[in-house]
Fold this protein.
Amino acid sequence: MTDANGVTGVKVMVIDDSNTIRRSAEIFLGQAGARVILAEDGFDALAKIADHEPDLIFCDILMPRLDGYQTCALIKKSPKYRDIPVVMLSSKDGLFDRARGRMVGSDLYLTKPFTKDGLLRTVGEYASRRTPA
């Protein structure tokens, strides 16, 4: 099976407190062949990362309980999970937000609302960097 966008089989976690965003990402990625893990917030995500070991994580910034910056920092502090790329998702596109994302270890910053093409392109770019198991 040829995979034009490099997404097939990639395990992608989407962390967002918005059900609409989670469902949109799940549909876009699922249709492209990715395996999607959804989490409602940082605590939910941290519990699921150990079970699923995603290849790539999309993380919303503004979430209750544990925000995206805190979630990303915790992932990046873990010796086992720090190499998983984390893409911050936010409706805010300011320099400060991007810089803060970088400070906690995020690999990329994607502005919401994201497009299907933007999401798939991002997953494809990171999937192509993975070393085959």
